[in-house]
Amino acid sequence: MKRILLKAVLLSLFVGLNTACEKDYLDINTDPNNPSEADINLTLPAGQAQVAFIVGGQLNILGGILSQYWSIPRGGNQFRTWDQYNITSSTLDGQGGQFANFYAGALQDFQYVINQGSQQNEWRMVGISKIMKAYGFGVLTDLYGDIPFSEALDADKTIIPKYDAQKDIYAGLQALLDEAKTDIAKRQGRFPGTSDMLYQAGNEAGMDRWIRLANTLKLKFYLRMSQVDPTAARTGVQALYAASGTAFMRTGESLQLVNGTVTNSENPFWQANFRSPNNLTASTTIGNLMQPNNDPRIPVFFLDADLRTPEMEYVFTPNGTTSTNTAVLSSYPGKYFIGQRFANGAINGTAATSGVTTSDDNAAKARPVVFLAYEESLLLRAEAIARGWAGTTADDPAKLYNEAITASMTRFGVQPGDYLTKPGVDYTKQTDKIKAIITQKYLALYGLNGVEAWVEQRRTGFPAPTLPVVNLTGNKFMKRLPYVDSELQRNPSIATTGIAPGDVLTPVWWDVD
């Protein structure tokens, strides 16, 4: 998918100019067949696709391991260093590195649409790009803390942008989202239609989805401040509700990118597992969380360990376990996520006893990358109200909580049954309402957005992780990703952060637990 869309962007460079000034007609320095400006209708989807590839692929895997959805099975070595906190400045750097690709790829694409679209009164696509820019910078700052923000994406002004404090970045994200809402409200410019790969906004109703998404992102960013600055977080949430009421994401409005079954268009998590199967298995952290309540999602989230017997047998692995100390058979991610792409014992691919078919494989390929799920938005609203910060009594946190769980189970094709009334789940019986809400968010994000799960786990401490059996951090939890080599070598401004190269233990600004 990534390769196809990048080709589309390159193709845009060969689109002819519609008009040309007469005085430039014989200018030998101007090639009319290769304009220097690409159509923003082609640049916007390229940026959206690249964010999906980054967030839905390697970062999804990394976040899933660090939040302890997954550990490593016997014989799996691709991600064992990650599971043992052996993550260095070169891990996510170099060609194809996530940090560089965010800046030089997706974020630069969105900035290009903003710059060009503002000159052309294409305010609808400018607004969408500002929302996507805020989303992308939100992912980066939650992983690294202080990052280039206010001076980033403008090489004409500086190639060594300053590192902004994360507190200031969060204020900037809120301002960016407000600008986006104002831009969209102008109702000027083309509707992106299919050039918008996420909502395919072809009319005002489609653009209203982006407004509701912006409100939802604003709520998420305010709640991220809940531990470090609850007063500012409460003030922001109350102002948001006063201005927007409950104009948040609606059912069917998950921000997600649809994938396909054609080579290089598949879900990036599936692609990673296709290239390196047998490298992820279920962690005891999530297994021990789900089994006591007999969560109906268990058979979707995990494969039967031996793939042979009629009864379902789940084997979970503690994070950081060495290969020789791992059980011979363990439970891989379910077929919903990886289809046939498992190698357990003698079975590899389709087998009658495994219950996995070619159609399961195609479904896993086409599964969307989820940026922000509807069920997540419901739990954000539930948290705001449970904290007493929401400016309206129209919503009930218990109702939102139950709707979110039901929406998650609907996504995974199961029914709640009596799950909502179990003592460990029933919202009305929970003494710690925030813990209950975040725990259900953790479960809902499984396999969809590992990074968001790790971020929320660091913010709230829920669910409590377990130190990896083997770890390279002196028995301390990882709190951030280390700055990458390319930044350490090229941008001296990084010294102002005070973060030493390779530091993974210093918490980011909002992480005070």
From TrEMBL:
Protein name per the record: SusD/RagB family nutrient-binding outer membrane lipoprotein
Classification of source organism: Bacteria, Pseudomonadati, Bacteroidota, Cytophagia, Cytophagales
Signal peptide: 1-20
Record-linked SUPFAM superfamilies: TPR-like
UniProt keywords, alphabetically: Lipoprotein, Signal
